[in-house]
Amino acid sequence: MEQIPKSVLSAIFSNLSKAAEKQDHPDESKIFEKLSGEYWKPDPANGGLDALKAGIEIDLSDNYAGVSSMADDLLDSGTQRCVKWGNKVSSIQRSLLSRYASKGEAIFEDKNLYVCEACGFIALSEDFPELCPICKAPASRFSRVK
Amino acid sequence: MYARRNLSLCTKDCLCLFVCPTGATNTATGQIDSKRCLDGCRLCVDACPSHAIHLVLDNYPEPALKNPELASLLLILIQSKTDQEAIAENVAGDEDMAPGARRLARALKISCRILAEDGAREAGYMLPQCQASRDLLESLKNN
Ligand code: SF4
Ligand code: SF4
Q1: Helix A64-74 with A77-103: angle, nearest 10 deg
Q2: Residue B95: pLDDT above 90?
Q3: Torsions phi, psi of B86, nearest 5?
Q4: Which of B42, B46, B48, B58 has most ligand 1 atoms within 8 Å of CB, for mutation?
Q5: pLDDT for A37-84, tens place per residue?
Q6: Which of A69, A127, A141, B101 has a C-alpha 20 to 30 A away from that of B57?
């Protein structure tokens, strides 16, 4: 098997932790959560929000597109869905970073940030969204970012 | 297979208590006692007026095998999202940054992780018990 980078393993294991929890296996879920934490040793990250935005740009221009065309060829509907949501969520991420870069702290006035636990969509709004505009999850799947 | 109650949908105190042949639905915790639940009985599932009970399976079908090239592309995508997560984590922890920027970074950190996890699912690591996950754990154990 090809060598999978540690941070990727961390994401694989946190996903498996959630899958175990959904199957009602809390002990197994905790083990995967712990494994995920052990593999989360990212190299000291360079750059700030600009570097983050540059990474998102590459996802939007290249990474998702590459996955998308192969998923289309293979008629892999799960991956097509993943790309569709991922593209939308990433462009929201990018637009929040752009807004912050131009308007600064003012964009948060009277507003909170909420993240959809199902698809990663970020809302900047006064209250919990009623429905996720991307994956249609209900308000109960959102958490407020503190 | 056993029954499981969604506590936020359950309006409490009604029909599942009457139909359950073993009393598994009548517990102080509010959750159904899986040890007393009869495999596949589902009387409470059908009786619940709030659709608050479902059956948990013991076995799930093996997900379809992923094309290895597609899986590699997805791993690159996951790597990119976790790189962003690492930057976001740094910004979120940086006390010199403005509070809004740190909050935005925390949101981005969570969001990037969810996108990475979604990629992991499509790369074949859908369930802990599926073949790809077991092969992965096996290879890590041997290294
Ligand atoms: S499935 Fe049957 S045995 Fe199990 S909790 Fe429901 S009514 Fe009781
Ligand atoms: S029947 Fe449904 S709503 Fe009523 S107590 Fe049971 S789970 Fe709750």
Answers
A1: 160
A2: yes
A3: -65, -40
A4: B42
A5: 999 998 876 789 999 999 999 999 999 999 999 999 999 999 999 999
A6: A141
Residue minimizing CA distance to atom 4 of ligand 2: B14
Q: How close is the Cα of B29 to the center of ligand 2, in Å? A: 13
d(CA A23, CA B67): 26
SS3 A144: strand
**Predicted complex ipTM:** 0.96
Nearest chain A residue (CA) to B107: A145
CATH number, residue B6 = 3.30.70.20
Average of per-residue pLDDT across B96-101: 94
CATH entry, A110-146, from 3.90.800.10, 2.20.28.10, 3.10.180.10, 3.30.2350.10 = 2.20.28.10
> Whole-model pTM?
0.90
Bridge-partner residues for B55, per DSSP? B3
Question: Phi/psi zone of residue A42: left (φ > 0), alpha (ψ -120 to 50 degrees), beta?
Answer: beta
